[in-house]
Amino acid sequence: MEFQDVVDRRKMIRDYAERPVEPALVERALRNATHAPSAGFSQGWGFLVLDSPTDVRRWWAATTEPESLADPDDWLTGMMRAPVVIVPCSSKAAYLARYAEKDKGWEDQDEARWPVPFWHMDAAMASLLILQTAVDDGLGACFFGIPPERVPAVREEFAIAPEFDPVGVITLGHRVEHTGNAGSPARRTRKPYDDVVHRGRWTTS
Fold this sequence. Notes:
This protein has a single domain, classed as NADH Oxidase, CATH 3.40.109. It is built from 9 helices and 5 strands, in the order H-H-E-H-H-H-E-H-H-E-H-E-E-H. The chain has helices at residues 3-9, 23-33, 53-63, 66-70, 74-80, 92-98, 118-136, 151-158, 193-196; strands spanning 45-50, 84-90, 140-144, 165-166, 169-173. Strands 1, 2, 3, 4 and 5 form a 5-stranded antiparallel beta sheet that branches.
């Protein structure tokens, strides 16, 4: 598939067929994720991969209210069919330590030196590569957030290292083409190009 086709076809998929994903495709997506850029080549990311039915069920049990699991809505029903769940995580500690090394010139690990949290940004760029690889392989994927009140349960259930923070979650699987849960693009139009691209200055007045 041409790169532009991958970009144009990428969308969040919320309904999956009950079919397994070839392990080689999962590995390709993860390998591509590790080629994302990272500040100082810190590579302060980690990926929790849940690709067995048992582990996927553990994920939904840890992140969903019991009553919702007992009577799932259309969104949850479609998402729970995804055979693979990937949890990208970022390590602030890795970045603070990297930039305290001699070649970077900082002598401390003061978080105030960072204009924005690059550890989260880099994990997000790695996540996008997973989403794009899914399209290239004819799969569907969706990135969404973890309810903040559920993060402690996720940490405990999956023994996530304390220096890593989940930044979201990606479901991966074979898409269902005709779905009643089409998501926001079915209800909202894409903003015009000229409304979001600003040349020379943001406003003209």
